[in-house]
Design brief:
Blueprint (H helix, E strand, L loop, with lengths): L1 E3 L5 H14 L11 H12 L4 E6 L2 E10 L9 E8 L8 H15 L4 E8 L11 H8 L3 E12 L2 E11 L13 H4 L16 E6 L18 E5 L2 H8 L5 E4 L13 E3 L8 H4 L4 E3 L8 H11 L2 E7 L6 H16 L3 E6 L2 E6 L2 E6 L6 E6 L3 E8 L5 E7 L8 E2 L4 E6 L4 E6 L2 H4 L1
Parallel strand pairs: 4-5, 8-9, 8-13, 9-10, 10-12, 11-12, 13-14
Antiparallel strand pairs: 1-2, 2-3, 3-4, 5-7, 6-7, 14-15, 15-22, 16-21, 17-20, 17-22, 18-19, 18-21
Helix pairs in contact: 1-2
Length: about 425
C-alpha cells in the first residue's frame, strides 16, 4: 500500500537510506542522517511537496518524494524527485508504483516536468555504483538531458552525475500557479490509503470501432473497471459487457441514464480528482483537444488503473488509429501499460528494459517496430529470427513477422520506444 509519510516513519526511512550513504555512491552524503534529522526533512518537504512510502504487512519497503528543482520562482512547475527502496523491495515494481503515485500528486499541483539527479561512473567494476538507477529511470519514461563529469568525490573516487527528465503533464502556454502540497492534502489529492483504488487495478475501455471477433474471448471478470467511450456502448451491448462508466461527447451515441453522479470534463478531458472517483457518466465538450478514447484512458488512470486494455481502436479512420498509438506512447512513458486488442492484433508500446512474451495459440506472429526515430540495443531470443543489440529505425520493416519458437520470447532494448505487435492471420481467428 502506498500512503503519505508520517513523522513516526522517520526511523524506518533512516534505516533504508543508511546503506545508500555508507556503502554506495548513490548518495553524496558522507554521514547517514538519524531519525530526528529525517523528521525535520519530512516536515520541511510536506509544506510544498508530496512524500510517499510503500508499506506491506506493517513494514516500509521504500519511499519517494519531491523537492525544489531551483529556488527561482520561474522554476515553480518543475521539481526534483528521489526514490529509495530497501534491498528486499527491489525488482518487484514498487519503485514504478511509488513514482506513478508521486507524479499524479505533482500533476495536481501544476507540476509539468520532473528531474532526477543520478550518480554515474564509467568504471565497469566500480565497487560503489552500478547502472541500476539510470536503467530504472529510463524504463519508467525518463530521458537523459544533461551530464556533469567528475563533480562528486566520495570513497576516494570521482563520480559524475546525469540529470534525467520526464514530462508528466501537458505543458500549457499559460500555466496556473504551482499549488503547495500542504494546500492540497486535505481535499484535492486523493489519499491512496483512503481510496478503493488499487495500483494493480485493470481497466477495459470499449471503443466505438472493433474489428472482427475481437473481444469475444475477453473475460470481463479480469477487469476492475469497464468504461465505454461514447459509441462503444453499442459494442458493449453486442458483446454483453456492462460498463461501470460511460464517457464521451455523445455525438455518436445517446447519453445514458445511469444511476450515479454525472461529471463534466474540460477540453483536455480533465476532471476534478474527487468527482472522478464517483462519476458514472462523464460528459466531454463537443469541441475539445482529445478524443473520447484518450479521455477514457486518462479517466481510467485517475481511477487508479495501472493497466488499461483498449477493445478496438485500430480499425476505422486511420487518423484515429495513429492517435491511439500516440496515447499508448504517452502512457508508456508515464509507466502505465496500455494494450490495444482489435481484429487479429494485440498492440502495446514498451519502454527500454527486458520483457518476457509468452507464446500464444491466439497470436502466431511477433512484430517489433521502432515507434520513434530508432530503437537501440534490441535483442530477441526464443524466436525464429533472433537479434542481438540491433538498431531499428522507423524506416525499415526489419522486425515484422517474427514467430515465438519457445515457451516465451525474451525482448530487451536500451533506448527508444518499441511498438510490440502480436498478430494472427485473419482466417486463424474466424
Amino acid at each position: 500500500m502506498i500512503r503519505e509519510v508520517r513523522l513516526t516513519d522517520a526511523a524506518a526511512l533512516a534505516a533504508i537510506y543508511e546503506p545508500y550513504v555508507r556503502q554506495t555512491a548513490i548518495s553524496f552524503e558522507y554521514e547517514a542522517p538519524d531519525a530526528s534529522e529525517f523528521e525535520r526533512r519530512i516536515s520541511a518537504t510536506l509544506q510544498n511537496y508530496p512524500y510517499l512510502v510503500y508499506e506491506s504487512d506493517g513494514a516500509i519497503l521504500g519511499y519517494a518524494y519531491a523537492s525544489v528543482f531551483h529556488g527561482r520562482i520561474a522554476y515553480q512547475h518543475c521539481v526534483e524527485v528521489s526514490i529509495y527502496l530497501s534491498q528486499a523491495a527491489r525488482g518487484k515494481g514498487i519503485g514504478r508504483e511509488l513514482y506513478a503515485e508521486l507524479e499524479d500528486r505533482l500533476a495536481a499541483q501544476n507540476v509539468y516536468r520532473v528531474y532526477a539527479c543520478i550518480t554515474s561512473t564509467d568504471r565497469e567494476d566500480d565497487p560503489y555504483l552500478n547502472g541500476a538507477s539510470i536503467a530504472f529511470h529510463s524504463k519508467v519514461g525518463y530521458t537523459h538531458t544533461a551530464s556533469f563529469p567528475k563533480c562528486g568525490y566520495k570513497f576516494g573516487l570521482w563520480y559524475s552525475v546525469v540529470w534525467m527528465e520526464k514530462q508528466i503533464a501537458q505543458v500549457p502556454s499559460d500555466p496556473i500557479d504551482f499549488i503547495p502540497y500542504s494546500q492540497l492534502r486535505a481535499s484535492e489529492v486523493p489519499r491512496v490509503e483512503e481510496s478503493q483504488a488499487s495500483h494493480a487495478k485493470r481497466a477495459l475501455v470499449v471503443t466505438a470501432h472493433v474489428t472482427g471477433n475481437a473481444g469475444q474471448n475477453l473475460d470481463v471478470a479480469d477487469f476492475d473497471l469497464i468504461i465505454c467511450a461514447d459509441g462503444g456502448q453499442a459494442v458493449a451491448e453486442r458483446l454483453g459487457i456492462e460498463p461501470g462508466v460511460v464517457l464521451g461527447d455523445f455525438d455518436s451515441s445517446k447519453q445514458p441514464e445511469l444511476e450515479g453522479p454525472i461529471a463534466h470534463a474540460d477540453v483536455e478531458g480533465r476532471l476534478n480528482p474527487e468527482l472522478a472517483q464517483s462519476a458514472k457518466v462523464v460528459v466531454l465538450p463537443h469541441e475539445k483537444n482529445v478524443t473520447d478514447t484518450e479521455a477514457a484512458v486518462s479517466f481510467a488512470h485517475q481511477r487508479g488503473a495501472r493497466e488499461v486494455t483498449l477493445l478496438g481502436g485500430l480499425g476505422g479512420r486511420f487518423d484515429h488509429t495513429m492517435g491511439n498509438l500516440g496515447v499508448l506512447a504517452h502512457w508508456a512513458a508515464k509507466g502505465m501499460t496500455v494494450t490495444i486488442i482489435d481484429g487479429p492484433n494485440e498492440v502495446r508500446i514498451l519502454q527500454p528494459g527486458e520483457y518476457r512474451i509468452p507464446r500464444s495459440d491466439a497470436y502466431k506472429y511477433l512484430g517489433c517496430i521502432s515507434y520513434g526515430e530508432r530503437v537501440r540495443g534490441l535483442s530477441l531470443e526464443g524466436v525464429a529470427y533472433p537479434l542481438e543489440k540491433a538498431t531499428l529505425t522507423n524506416r525499415t520493416s526489419l522486425g515484422v513477422s517474427n514467430e515465438i519458437t519457445q515457451a516465451q520470447a525474451r525482448v530487451s532494448f536500451d533506448e527508444g520506444q518499441l511498438l510490440l505487435v502480436r498478430s494472427a492471420d485473419e482466417e486463424e481467428l474466424s
